[in-house]
Amino acid sequence: MIPDRRGSEFRDSNDTIGSSQGRDRIARGSRSTSASSERCSSPVPVLYFRHIATVLVDIPPMLDELVSELLLEIDASGLITSVAFRERFACIARRDHPRLSTDHFPLDLFVDLQHVQVVARNLPMYGMPIDAALAALGFVRRVALWHPSFQALPAIVAKTDLVATLPRRLAIHAAQTLPIAVYDPPVPLPTVDFSLYWHARSHEDSGHKWLRAKVAALLRSADRSVP
């Protein structure tokens, strides 16, 4: 959703992609921007936010199309980049799962239970670290459902016997409102870099520099709050 210039009406961002109202200053990402917009817009009344789901192969042409933009993603080649934060993985299952009765997620159960896994446009990048770690130990997990969005996984897990592995801060946040339990992965997993990306034409723009610094500080603050 994106507010109009009066700040009093909202409409779906997909209806305004590429429009003049969306070209002033745009923050994109794979996470909700509501908190970011509230904290970033107060000192700058002409700052507008649009939250749009992105696909890696579409990122360069999208940034070419827009006048000013800032993207939060895992990977986007060919753009100026700065690591915003490093994220650990966590596992989730519903709190009353019939096969998980402790605060420990045993490896044998992790392999035996059915998983829901994120895949974006047939890109397996999100599941590769998990499967590689299991393969090194001679295991293969059972993925029963593929979904294009991390945000939907907690709700799916809360109503099924499926389990999932996802970024830790998302798991912790979802557990505050959904009946899910958060576990440490039963195998060591590498951290994932989430980075800010922007087009070279915006690199020296003073407003864009301000926005990048503001978003980076916000993400660092949130990173310190994740247990």
Primary descriptors:
alpha+beta, 227 residues, 4-stranded mixed β-sheet, D-Maltodextrin-Binding Protein, domain 2, disordered N terminus, 11 strands
Can you describe this structure?
By secondary structure, the chain is an alpha+beta fold. It folds into two domains: 2-85 and 192-224, 3-Layer(aba) Sandwich (D-Maltodextrin-Binding Protein, domain 2), CATH 3.40.190; 89-183, Periplasmic binding protein-like II (D-Maltodextrin-Binding Protein, domain 2). Helix content is 28%, strand content 23%. The chain is built from seven helices and eleven strands. The protein has helices at residues 34-41, 59-65, 107-112, 128-136, 153-158, 168-175, 206-224; strands at residues 2-3, 10-11, 26-29, 69-73, 80-87, 89-94, 114-118, 142-147, 164-167, 180-183, 192-198. The protein has a four-stranded mixed β-sheet with strand order 3-4-11-5, with helices on one face. Strands 9-6-10 form a three-stranded antiparallel β-sheet. β1 (2-3) and β2 form a beta hairpin. The longest helix is centred in the C-terminal third of the chain and has 19 residues, at 206-224.
